[in-house]
Amino acid sequence: MKVLFAASECAPFVKTGGLADVIGAVPKALSALGVDVRVMLPGYPEMAAIMKGGKTVRKIKNLHGGSARLVAKKAEGLNLLLLDAPHLFDRAGNIYLGPDGKDWKDNHLRFGGFSQIAAEVARDGIKGWQPDIVHAHDWQASLIPAYLKTKPNSAPPCVLTIHNIAFQGLCEPSALPKLGLPKKLFAPDGLEYWGKVNFLKAGIVYSDRITTVSPTYANELSLPEFGMGMDGILQTRRDVLSGILNGIDLDVWNPETDPDLAANYSARTLSKKKKNRAAVEKRFGLKHNPDAPLFCVVSRLTEQKGLDLLLDVLPGLVDRGARLALLGSGDKSLEAGFIAATRGYTGSVGAVIGYDESLSHLLQGGSDAILIPSRFEPCGLTQLYGLRYGTIPLVSRTGGLADTVIDANEAALADNCATGVQFSPIHAAGLYHAIARTCDLYAQPKVWAGMQRRAMRQQIGWDRSAQTYLDLYKSLGT
Ligand code: ADP
């Protein structure tokens, strides 16, 4: 089977969040099952070196104001198809945001153009390679099924995966002719949304199957409090919507071999984790306290992630003797809040504002617990890394967090199946109570070590989910 993936980011080349990890990992897991996957990505500056050595497989005379080409090249175990369109993608800085921190004004043309060419590849194939399925990811690739529907006869089926419904991609309807889409699609049962064109809605309406990244999030999406305006349309597509849990790349995230750790360890040599904790304490300027846990956060700092709640309960965390090491960037007021906390609680709270892949590995290796108090979380990856590294996840009970962490309640502890701590409802008092419970568990070394070992044994690789994707593709009759 041949599958064309289309997405806007892919680890290790270009990453702003979990989407990139997924796109970097799933094709490899699928190819282990015999699926031939090509991954189409925009040609950002990060891809320049790869494009230089690649082969031009398609030339495009004019794509929204400039010529473009598709470049094929194998890199990092992936068969890439890169859309080299310098006028759209060769820009310094964030792949979605301009220097003013706002969306690039032509994002609809950048990702609309990307989707248009992906749809052409899906329909015409490339140098004899003809996909049986096109798998579009998030709003940036969501116009693909709309383009395919304009000539349905020659189009392969399309699967859309929603990695986060908060990002939908809106533009004015006057852009439709430029995007090359018929005006008749601009209707309530098409891609119209409160007078705008909504890319994600197009994907939801015109895809043959829709998946999201955890079963709980799939259920939540049809509710007004989680659907972000898409709940109604998703209810009408309930029969084709399913949740397939994300996994992690077990080679990249492996405490036994991770080069970013001060000491490698396994479930049998957990005491070596202490060396990593010492390295984190040093890096974040934290005073060692063996009697209380070191918590970490590795996150975008946004409303979604609930880290304002953590700021509210920091005095309580510090009172318990616990420590916090935070790595993140985003919302300026949250950044300022955590920087202020490092001054107010010197030696107890440390923060690095920024994005640092290597430091994120050290934090997973050196912390006792990882805090993820998200208001909503489609799947979440950092709790999975936490499990793999014996770093107990403390999570809100929502989305994929609910599906991947087993709360240390009395019954779970008695049954020896707890792997973390959950809390709900999602408010500051609930978070504080969960932090206090985590500190109490940490104070019982045998119970804690048991949870760590159990966490590290969880099956969180991609094999099972890749098989589920393959079954889904097969159900489309190709
Ligand atoms: P989301 O995609 O909503 O940001 P996920 O938990 O699914 O959340 O994925 C986040 C990914 O980004 C993880 O791989 C995490 O380690 C990484 N990450 C987030 N913030 C940072 C940061 N400041 N530095 C390094 N890695 C980060």
Number of helices: 20
- What fold name stands as the CATH topology of the largest domain? Rossmann fold
User: For the largest beta sheet, what order do the strands appear in spatially?
Assistant: 3-4-5-2-1-6-7-11-12
Measured as a percent range, the helix fraction is 25-40%
Query: Can you tell me the CATH superfamily of the largest domain?
Result: Glycogen Phosphorylase B
Work out the strand percent.
Answer: 15-25%
Multimeric state = single chain
For the secondary structure, the number of strands is 18
CA(first)-CA(last) distance:
8 Å
Shape: globular
User: What is the CA-based Rg, rounded?
Assistant: 23 Å
CATH class of the largest domain: Alpha Beta
The parts where pLDDT drops under 50 for at least 5 residues are none
What class, by secondary structure content?
Answer: alpha/beta
| Corresponding CATH architecture of the largest domain | 3-Layer(aba) Sandwich
- How many domains make up the 3D coordinates? 2
- Spell out which ligands are present: adenosine-5'-diphosphate
Q: Sheet with the most strands?
A: 9 strands, mixed
Give the mean pLDDT.
Answer: 97
Describe what this molecule looks like in 3D.
It is a single chain. The protein has 478 residues and is of the alpha/beta class. The chain folds into two domains: 2-247 and 462-475, Glycogen Phosphorylase B (Rossmann fold, 3-Layer(aba) Sandwich), CATH 3.40.50.2000; 270-457, Rossmann fold, CATH 3.40.50. It has 20 helices and 18 strands. It has helices at 18-31, 48-52, 86-89, 107-124, 144-150, 176-179, 199-206, 215-220, 224-227, 231-236, 273-284, 307-319, 332-344, 357-366, 382-388, 399-404, 410-414, 428-442, 445-457, 463-475; strands spanning 2-6, 36-42, 55-60, 68-75, 78-84, 133-137, 158-162, 170-171, 192-193, 196-198, 209-212, 241-243, 294-301, 323-330, 349-353, 369-372, 392-396, 421-423. Strands 3-4-5-2-1-6-7-11-12 form a nine-stranded mixed sheet. Helix 5 crosses helix 7, helix 11 crosses helix 14 and helix 12 packs across helix 18. The longest helix has 18 residues, at 107-124. The radius of gyration is 23 Å and the shape is globular. The protein starts with a strand and ends with a helix. The structure holds adenosine-5'-diphosphate.
